[in-house]
Amino acid sequence: MERRVETVRPDIVQCVRGHLLCGECRKGLRECPTCRQPFSDAKPSLVLLQMLEALPKLCQYTNCRAFLEPDDDHERWCGFQPAKCMMNRCDWVGQAQDVLSHVQKCHSRALTVRESYQDMKFQDLNLQNFLKRYFPISAHGQFFWAEAHCNAEKEFFMVTFCLVPNGKPWEDYFIDVSIGSKESFSQSKFKFDLEMKKERNTVYVPSSWLPNFLDKDKLLRLKMVITKGKQ
């Protein structure tokens, strides 16, 4: 049997010989994996629990070997956390750090947008039946999803940006979005909110404006530029 030596996590249980085990790891076991003795009903001492609480803890995500100090936000940005592909009809789920390679490998017809992209097109724009569309964006070593969607009730066309975690970003990102044609358009620029508050990372355009933004081919075009650094 493989044995793992790690910092245990609450809830902690122990066997009659004093070996400790996480409550989560205890599930499905009838005896201690170290000594083959039964588990004890006794609670670990308060001193022991306080000592364990003070020790660095291993990141909760599978295959990540990082140990965490108190108040460490590593797990929030860990690239080993689960993530799913947002492309239409794709049920892939894997590690966040693998999303880009998955998109490149399995969605070869889908353009992976770079730092600057000039021509996302929306055809047959029916706001009442508008289906969400996702655009994969690889920019400055980060991976974003851009989600175009409509809120028919509030009468807004929206583009929301989401960052897929793969290590804590140490730079600011600025997103410049232009929606419309050469003759008539709406332009917005904002600093990406690393707190991931959706409303702060969304561009809103009143749906009543959209007919004026269509080009001669009746297409709604979206242009986007992502820059980094302080501005």
UniProtKB/TrEMBL annotation:
This entry's Gene Ontology molecular function terms read: ubiquitin conjugating enzyme binding; ubiquitin protein ligase activity; zinc ion binding
Tell me yes or no: is Cytoplasm among this UniProt entry's keywords.
no
Question: Per UniProt, which keywords does this protein have?
Answer: Metal-binding, Zinc, Zinc-finger
List the SUPFAM superfamilies.
TRAF domain-like (SSF49599)
What are the residue boundaries of the E3 ubiquitin-protein ligase Sina-like RING finger domain, all occurrences included?
6-35
Q: Name one Pfam family in it.
A: Sina_RING
Q: What is this protein called?
A: E3 ubiquitin-protein ligase Sina-like RING finger domain-containing protein
- Annotated organism of origin: Cuerna arida
